């Protein structure tokens, strides 16, 4: 068994209307009453940003909003947020939105108090021991890196994904309010849910997994699979989204104790380089990631089958593993989600660069078996 170490930093609240706790938390972390709010501009359409501002301003807090986040955000947008964080001297940062927005907020909060510029940190320089407290309010059904002291960004200089591990990069508090995801279409919600499922499954078969991460991740997989079934059957059922958030949190907790895998690495690298949505990439890559894991962790992949609600009694491990992949591909077919990388007009010869970028992510060292850049590219070719 791998060495086991357990620590969770952020305080996490999950449930309907947890957003109402925000003013009290903001007042606790910012006695001066100033807040930098980093938001996804798409949330203006659902009035979510107006609601958050109103909650904070009604308590007398001064709000500075940063919303200059394009669809393909890069380290340059993080630099803009960092400049505002330093210029405003806000003692608290709040991130509101999906993974892209939360990672920009993490970069700004963890680097603002030091003198390093962002490019230097992306190149390996230490950000320094000081950091701003950060409150994260996620709005999509996945946040695999929730408990980890890290952030990742597409580097504007070369389009490569950069994963930075820095003390203080994890949030101080997280508010998960299922009501904030009500505006997602069923297909988008399902794709985000599958992204969370990929993190849970890959962490479950990782060489870094432990007895505790296995317990948490087994429950996460079961919860996410159940909520996916509910979402397909009853797209507007709020209980499915609440269950999805619970499963997502458990997946994040388990991933923090273990490590994601090859599908997550390729999805991060391809998203940074080519701008394909990470959730869409996860839906394509997860079946192939399961097949990849089955070559060296067959018993664990087979153990996933009953967690997905499938009867595997009387099946050999190979048959149970195959049924696990079949279950997922059936769901993707029902949802009519693209099943191949070529569906996004990606050129196979250019994907060699993406394979290199994916292999350089540190968590790839904890795959079920060691891989080279060529191995990652072979994996991508199977999904092309």
Task: Describe the fold and architecture.
The mean pLDDT is 93. Helix 6 (186-205) packs parallel to helix 8. The radius of gyration is 20 Å and the shape is globular. The chain contains 14 helices and 8 strands. With 384 residues, the protein is an alpha/beta fold. The chain folds into 2 domains: 11-180, Rossmann fold (3-Layer(aba) Sandwich); 185-383, Dehydroquinate synthase-like - alpha domain (Dehydroquinate synthase-like, alpha domain).
Q: What are the key terms here?
A:
2 domains, 384 residues, two-stranded antiparallel ribbon, alpha/beta, six-stranded parallel β-sheet, Rossmann fold, globular, Dehydroquinate synthase-like, alpha domain
Q: Which strand order do you get reading across the main beta sheet?
A: 1-8-5-4-2-3
CATH topology of the largest domain: Dehydroquinate synthase-like, alpha domain
CATH class of the largest domain: Mainly Alpha
Give a quick account of the main beta sheet: strands, pairing sense, barrel closure. Answer: 6 strands, parallel
Look at the structure and give the mean pLDDT: 93
Global structural class: alpha/beta
In CATH, the homologous superfamily of the largest domain goes by the name: Dehydroquinate synthase-like - alpha domain
């Amino acid at each position: 068994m791998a060495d086991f170490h357990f620590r969770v930093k952020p305080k996490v609240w999950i449930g309907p209307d947890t957003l109402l706790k925000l003013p009290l938390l903001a007042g606790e972390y910012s006695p001066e009453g100033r807040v930098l709010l980093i938001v996804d501009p798409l949330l203006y359409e659902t009035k979510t940003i107006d609601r958050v501002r109103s909650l904070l301003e009604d308590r007398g807090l001064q709000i500075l909003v940063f919303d200059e986040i394009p669809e393909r955000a890069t380290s340059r947008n993080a630099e803009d947020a960092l400049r505002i964080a330093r210029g405003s001297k806000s003692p608290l940062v709040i991130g509101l939105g999906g993974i892209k927005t939360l990672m920009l907020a993490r970069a700004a909060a963890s680097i603002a108090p030091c003198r390093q510029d962002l490019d230097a940190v992306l190149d390996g320089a230490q950000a320094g021991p000081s950091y701003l407290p950060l409150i994260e309010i996620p709005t999509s059904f996945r946040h695999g890196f929730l408990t980890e002291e890290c952030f990742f960004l597409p580097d504007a200089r070369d389009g490569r994904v950069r994963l930075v591990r820095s003390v203080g990069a994890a949030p101080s508090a997280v508010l998960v309010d299922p009501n904030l995801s009500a505006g997602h279409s069923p297909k988008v919600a399902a794709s985000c849910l599958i992204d969370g499922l990929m993190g849970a499954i890959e962490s479950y078969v990782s060489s870094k997994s432990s007895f505790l991460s296995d317990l948490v991740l087994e429950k996460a997989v079961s919860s996410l699979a159940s909520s996916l079934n509910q979402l397909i059957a009853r797209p507007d059922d709020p209980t499915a989204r609440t269950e999805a958030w619970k499963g997502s949190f458990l997946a994040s907790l388990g991933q923090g104790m273990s490590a994601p895998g090859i599908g997550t690495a390729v999805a991060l690298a391809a998203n940074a380089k080519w701008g394909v949505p990470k959730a869409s990439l996860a839906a394509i890559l997860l079946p192939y990631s399961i097949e990849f894991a089955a070559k060296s962790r067959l018993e664990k992949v087979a153990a996933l089958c009953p967690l997905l609600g499938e009867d595997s009694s009387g099946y050999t491990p190979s048959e149970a593993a195959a049924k696990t992949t079949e279950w997922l591909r059936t769901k993707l077919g029902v949802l009519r989600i693209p099943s191949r990388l070529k569906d996004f007009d990606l050129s196979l010869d250019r994907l060699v660069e993406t394979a290199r970028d994916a292999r350089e992510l540190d968590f790839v060292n904890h795959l079920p078996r060691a891989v080279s850049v060529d191995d990652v590219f072979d994996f991508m070719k199977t999904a092309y």
